[in-house]
TrEMBL record:
One of its GO terms (cellular component) is plasma membrane. Heme c 2 binds at residues 160, 163-164. Residues 50-225 form the Cytochrome c domain. Its EC number is 7.1.1.8. This is Cytochrome bc1 complex cytochrome c subunit. It is an enzyme of class 7 (translocase). The cytochrome bc1 complex is composed of a cytochrome b (QcrB), the Rieske iron-sulfur protein (QcrA) and a diheme cytochrome c (QcrC) subunit. Its main location: membrane.
Length: 267
């Protein structure tokens, strides 16, 4: 009993409990963030006069130098009239805009504006002309009862894999352009990319892929992402070609090294 009492009073017990509490708190916060990040703002907030006014001020201070006052376009940027709220939320929400430098395409980088500011700029641009809106939450719910993972996989391989690769790891295109990896991209941003066609990506309207089809594709990607790489290093997720090349190169290097070692020993 005395030894048990001493163990309970050990200072490391408090540290262990503190670490356990932090892990549980962080896990719950991450789960709540993932649930709420899909649709942080209602559709009504994108038509609020106050949000539109605040978005216009942000746009004039940060975007008008390229896209022009009133988003009518300029020498350094296209017109944004009619691109819709979804386009702004994707480009700004993934850090692609504002551009860091001129290049074949805008690269993803740390986000410059918070979620509220992004929503306000999207509301302002949306007020200038109709375009794709922020997706409804039901089409971002990958646990929906009607989700069909097998169909989502088929749709992805037919419509997306030629650029993003079957593993969704991305791939090179022409003239320095590329299809980015889809690993870690939020459900909302994947949906917005499909309806707006950013950079070199084609637009998948509801005529091409219905909202339910898009949800199936997103659910498939998230299921694929959750599986990880239980076999070890992914090697670009290119399958047996990359694995065979690695084995061949490494094996050939070992053989050459062994031959050099034998020759040096004989001399």
């Amino acid at each position: 009993m005395k030894a048990l009492s001493q163990n309970r009073r050990h200072p490391m017990v408090g540290v262990a409990l503190l670490l356990l509490g932090l892990l549980l708190t962080g896990g719950l916060y991450s789960l709540a963030s993932n649930i709420n990040s899909a649709s942080a703002y209602s559709q009504a907030e994108y038509t609020s006069a106050d949000n539109i006014a605040d978005g216009e001020a942000l746009f004039n201070a940060n975007c008008a130098s390229c896209h022009g006052v009133g988003a009518t376009g300029g020498p350094a940027g296209p017109s944004l009239i009619g691109v819709g709220a979804a386009s702004v939320d994707f480009q700004v929400g993934t850090g692609r805009m504002p551009l860091q430098m001129s290049g074949p395409q805008g690269a993803q980088k740390p986000v410059q504006f918070n979620e509220e500011q992004t929503m306000q700029m999207a509301a302002y641009v949306h007020s200038l002309g109709t375009g794709p809106t922020i997706p409804e939450e039901e089409y971002l719910d990958t646990d929906h009862a009607d989700v069909d993972l097998a169909r989502g996989g088929d749709l992805f391989r037919v419509n997306c894999a030629m650029c993003h690769a079957a593993s969704a790891g991305g791939g090179a295109l022409t003239r320095g352009k590329y299809a980015p990896s889809l690993d870690g991209v939020s459900e909302q941003h994947i949906y917005e990319a499909m309806v707006t066609g950013p950079q070199n990506m084609p637009v998948f309207s509801d005529t091409n892929l219905t909202p339910e089809d898009k949800r199936d594709v997103i659910a498939y990607l998230k299921e694929f992402e959750s599986q990880g790489h239980p076999g070890g290093a992914s090697l670009g997720s290119l399958g047996p070609v990359a694995e065979g090349l690695f084995i061949w190169t490494a094996g050939l290097a070992l053989i050459i090294g062994f031959m050099v070692w034998i020759t040096s020993r004989s001399n």
